[in-house]
């Protein structure tokens, strides 16, 4: 983070976190409060370590961090939001098609388990399929690695497949209240209208608005294999967004010794800071060009964030659950696969 960006954030959150001096002591300044919080998010230093570094008691630090994270979320609320009009959705889809050669994509979705200590008196309420406590970060990402929608804090007694169904995004999709563009015919000889879709992996169900890869390991050169590659290539943006997030904000890399409500605020604060810093004029300080995955003649060049993923003891992917797909969604997926082969082939795709 540049000093300029730090000052911008400080100006936004200071009215919410500033405390008044008293006759007995001087208050901890807003600058110090923001500094200790950003240090905690970036390093996951213990409160004891931060106590000696900033000369602030660990009891005060434990309160300051949550208060400042809450202030960051409120101050940067406009940095994470869904498109509101059909034209805005069309702009997102256009960027996906231009950058990743996938038509009618309005976002890439994925989720991560954020590990935490077992909350008091919760029993197995927050246990997941790997038998540890966690909350889930579910996110929708645009073609430029920015978060458009996040949902944090789903209890892990809900199955991974049910996480998405318990979000406002799912309800709005079901109610058709997001102002998505109407389905349109692609450049094919077939009279099939293709809806605008969210790109997902196998952890999610195939539906009229979520697209997932073909199951199994399709034969090399088959349309299913080509489709899976094109889908994986386009939804790599959400993998990179999560990768950069956990690489910079290392608080996400280890189990949090916090209650779910406090952990949720910390996770949300990192997401809002990610978008703010990605859109900053000095965004290269936050994430340099080599931080993201790139391609050379169709071969993946791993981004720098992948180099330290082996040290993760948190931020695990969602589990996949076999589901029966609707016939209409299956037909749309096959139609897209044929479209990739017949109309928009990639010259180096035969290598895959």
UniProtKB/TrEMBL annotation:
Subcellular location: Nucleus
Cited InterPro entries: HARBI1-like, HARBI1_dom
Any one GO cellular component localisation term in the record: nucleus
TM region(s), chain numbering: none
Entry keywords, A to Z: Hydrolase, Metal-binding, Nuclease, Nucleus
Keyword Nucleotidyltransferase carried by entry: no
Keyword Nuclease: yes
Residue ranges annotated for the DDE Tnp4 domain, each copy included: 109-275
Pfam families, sorted: DDE_Tnp_4
GO MF, any single term: nuclease activity
Top-rank taxon: Eukaryota
Cofactor requirements of the protein: a divalent metal cation
Family: Belongs to the HARBI1 family.
Protein name (record): DDE Tnp4 domain-containing protein
């Amino acid at each position: 983070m540049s000093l300029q960006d730090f000052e911008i954030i400080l100006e936004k959150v200071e009215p919410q976190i500033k405390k008044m001096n008293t006759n007995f002591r001087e208050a901890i300044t807003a600058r110090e409060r923001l500094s200790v919080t950003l240090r905690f998010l970036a390093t996951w230093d213990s409160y004891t370590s931060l106590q000696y570094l900033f000369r602030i008691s660990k009891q005060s630090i434990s309160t300051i961090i949550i208060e400042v994270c809450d202030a960051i979320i409120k101050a940067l609320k406009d940095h994470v939001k869904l498109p509101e009009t059909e034209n805005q959705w069309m702009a997102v889809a256009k960027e996906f098609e231009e950058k990743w050669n996938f038509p009618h994509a309005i976002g890439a979705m994925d989720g991560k388990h954020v590990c935490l200590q077992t909350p008091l008196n919760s029993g197995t309420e927050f246990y997941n399929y790997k038998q540890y406590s966690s909350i889930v970060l579910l996110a929708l990402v645009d073609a430029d690695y920015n978060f458009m929608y996040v949902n944090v804090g789903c209890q892990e007694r809900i199955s991974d497949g049910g996480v998405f169904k318990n979000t406002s995004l799912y309800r709005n999709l079901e109610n058709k209240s997001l102002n998505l563009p109407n389905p349109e015919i692609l450049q094919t000889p077939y009279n099939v209208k293709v809806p605008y879709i969210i790109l997902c992996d196998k952890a999610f169900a195939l539906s009229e608005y979520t697209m997932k890869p073909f199951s199994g390991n399709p034969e090399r050169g088959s349309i299913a294999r080509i489709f899976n590659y094109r889908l994986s290539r386009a939804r790599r943006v959400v993998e990179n967004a999560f990768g950069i997030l956990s690489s910079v904000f290392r608080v996400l890399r280890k189990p949090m010794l916090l209650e779910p409500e406090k952990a949720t605020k910390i996770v949300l604060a990192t997401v809002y800071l990610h978008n703010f810093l990605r859109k900053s004029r000095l965004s290269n300080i936050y994430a340099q060009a080599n931080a993201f995955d790139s391609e050379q003649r169709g071969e993946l060049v791993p981004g720098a964030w992948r180099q330290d993923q082996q040290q993760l003891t948190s931020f695990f992917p969602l589990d996949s659950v076999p589901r029966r797909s609707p016939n209409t969604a299956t037909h749309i997926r096959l139609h897209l696969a044929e479209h990739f082969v017949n109309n928009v082939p990639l010259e180096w795709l035969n290598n895959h």
